[in-house]
Amino acid sequence: MFYPWGGYVPSSEPAVAASSTLMVSWHGAPYRRIIDGSSDRVIARVARKLAGMKRPVLLRWGWEMNGDWFEWDGSHNGDDPAG
């Protein structure tokens, strides 16, 4: 399942068998929005929803960060691994 940063993330996913692990691909955000705390409420809200699923969840955050086509990749963040 793919979900946008700051957008809807479900608190359950009934279409996935209970015996399987749900993988949630969650869009990243520019590092500055995470470092400066402006995304804290978004992160906390999504964490509560995923924890509330009461099942294993694999969170795939900010995929393809090694490229140059997403706002969370290195080229958009000063090519600095520390952000």
Automatic annotation (TrEMBL):
Keyword line: Glycosidase, Hydrolase
Q: Which InterPro entries match?
A: GH, GH26_dom
Which molecular function terms from Gene Ontology are attached?
Answer: hydrolase activity, hydrolyzing O-glycosyl compounds
Region forming the signal peptide: none
Record PROSITE patterns: GH26
Xref: SUPFAM superfamilies = (Trans)glycosidases
Alphabetized Gene3D superfamilies for the sequence = Glycosidases (3.20.20.80)
Question: Residue ranges of the GH26 domain?
Answer: 1-83
Which family is this sequence assigned to? Belongs to the glycosyl hydrolase 26 family.
Identification of the protein by name: GH26 domain-containing protein
Native species? Actinoplanes auranticolor
